[in-house]
């Protein structure tokens, strides 16, 4: 497979993806997730059952919408530094990343009628904290993330998506690592309340710099972990780079990242308002076809978004 030329398959109504996995598991299902990591749940029958129930909610949304479904692995924290904190060495991480893909492949084979198509996606998270800018060495990031991407490729993932990235350097490194192992990679930046990356880079500049450094090697770009009102200031729907944004995974809350870090209660937001604002944001962009959520959202939020219609042909 030539990872640099892979494109998200066309579907009649776009792609449903999931919401805030970790916040749902913690606040709604009462699970303890040290370091905000959900991948250890794969190593226990009760944990796998909780994950299965979570993903089935989004499969139902996709079936009702007649859309495609992206099943994304619970591996946002399953990289070397975070894994070591949780007692997972290199071999254990490789195993759990492969197991995550295999487990979702089994769920993909049992989605309800109405789901147009299913892809299994390996989810990658940042090396550091998802809200803080990291260093600027793209090659170091490539070396760091390559083992996880290789595990996804070995297990037969269709795609990898790297979420909550705060710097262009880490995005470039992840795309290069995906190219090394032959796995297409999508890049998802997070933004602050002003629509800029946490290091101050304008969203459009971050997309253009990524494409320049990788030969447009990213499969597509998303924005995640920010309320639509925070993403909007960084958007210029008429700019050429806007056509690279294929997906939105928004937060339910208008709180800043710093405020969310300190919050002890879940801010679920206003579902109808969030849905309409997400739809308005998607409509301002020419190529959005993936709609999902991030912190504070669950299948109810995503169902409300999809009740607004489909991003395809908007």
UniProtKB/TrEMBL annotation:
Q: Which cofactor does it need?
A: Zn(2+)
Query: Which residues are recorded as binding Zn(2+)?
Result: 225, 294-295
Q: Which residues form a coiled coil?
A: none
Domain (Hcy-binding): residue spans on this chain: 3-309
Q: Which domain of life is it from?
A: Bacteria
Is the keyword Transferase in the record?
yes
Which Gene3D superfamilies has this protein been placed in?
Homocysteine-binding-like domain
Give the keywords, sorted: Metal-binding, Methyltransferase, Transferase, Zinc
> Quick one: a GO biological-process term for this protein?
methylation
* InterPro entries xref list: HCY_dom, HCY_dom_sf
Q: Spell out the molecular function terms from Gene Ontology.
A: metal ion binding; methyltransferase activity
Indicate whether Transmembrane appears among the record's keywords: no
Matches recorded under PANTHER family: SLR1189 PROTEIN
Designated name of the protein: Homocysteine S-methyltransferase
Task: Provide the species name.
Answer: Nocardioides glacieisoli
């Amino acid at each position: 497979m030539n990872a640099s030329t892979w494109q998200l398959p066309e579907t009649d109504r776009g792609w449903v993806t999931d919401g805030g996995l970790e916040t749902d598991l913690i606040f709604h299902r009462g699970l303890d997730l040290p370091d905000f990591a959900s991948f250890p749940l794969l190593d226990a029958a009760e944990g796998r059952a909780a994950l299965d129930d979570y993903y089935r909610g989004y499969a139902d949304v996709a079936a009702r919408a007649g859309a495609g479904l992206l099943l994304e692995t619970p591996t946002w924290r399953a990289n070397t530094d975070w894994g070591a904190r949780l007692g997972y060495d290199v071999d254990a991480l490789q195993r759990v990343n492969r197991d995550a893909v295999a487990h979702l492949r089994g769920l993909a084979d049992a989605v309800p009628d109405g789901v147009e198509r299913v892809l299994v996606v390996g989810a990658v998270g940042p090396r550091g904290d998802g809200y803080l800018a990291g260093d600027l060495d793209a090659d170091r990031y490539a070396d760091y993330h390559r083992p996880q991407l290789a595990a996804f490729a070995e297990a037969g993932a269709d795609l990898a998506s790297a979420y909550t990235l705060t710097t262009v350097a880490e995005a470039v490194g992840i795309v290069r690592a995906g190219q090394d192992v032959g796995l297409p990679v999508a890049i998802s930046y997070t933004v602050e309340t002003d629509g800029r990356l946490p290091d101050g880079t304008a969203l459009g500049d971050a997309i253009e710099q990524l494409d320049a450094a990788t030969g447009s090697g990213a499969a597509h770009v998303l924005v995640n972990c920010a309320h639509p009102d925070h993403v909007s200031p960084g958007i210029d729907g008429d700019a050429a780079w806007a056509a690279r944004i294929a997906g939105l995974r928004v937060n339910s809350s208008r709180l800043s990242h710093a405020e969310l870090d300190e919050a002890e209660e879940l801010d679920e937001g206003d579902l109808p308002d969030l849905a309409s604002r997400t739809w308005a944001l998607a409509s301002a962009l020419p190529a959005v076809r993936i709609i999902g959520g991030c912190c504070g959202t669950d299948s109810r939020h995503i169902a409300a978004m999809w009740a607004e219609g489909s991003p395809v042909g908007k």
